[in-house]
Predict the structure.
Amino acid sequence: MMKKAIKISLILVGLILVLNIKAQDEQAVGSFKEVVLNMTLSEVDSIKTVTITATTTENGKEVPVAGETVSVFVPRMFSNFPIGDITLDDTGTGTIEFPSDLPGGKEGILTIVAAFIDNATYGNVEKREEIHWGLPTDYLPTSHRALWTTRAPYWMIYTLSVLLTGVWGHYFFAIISLIRIRIDAKRKAKAEYRI
């Protein structure tokens, strides 16, 4: 009786989970509106400006997206470096000044991203552009030894050498000890049995 109750409850829980997932999928499919993000990057008198324009389609006409917030950031290795948030005006346009002191690798190339993030109406939408607005940098001098370079630091080489010598030394000691035990056993056998 108890086994039937457990089986029935497991089947009911499975059905509830499946129906819940199906309902969420159906809700997510038609819940977000389409939006088009356009990004214009301009530089006037060494002032770099990012201009965002967002439009959506309603009844076959393009309508500007007003009052929404668009985040502008630069992707980095482990996270995004935020530049700022733009609130779009009635024409669906917003601007932000871009900093001029960001490092951009060896060639100074930056990827600038404008995105709606977790927006209730439009979901997650982003626009990416690459441009030479970063400061060209070279972080890896040829004589420098570090964990992130192709040349390992000396302390790591010494530590690894000592550890590997210790491990292989124990292997050789064990092999030599086994050989000595065998030789001693043969000597004892010859002495006892006078072979």
Notes: The chain has two helices and eight strands. The CA atoms of residues 62 and 124 lie 20 Å apart. The chain has two domains: 36-131, 140-195. The first strand starts at residue 36 and ends at 44.
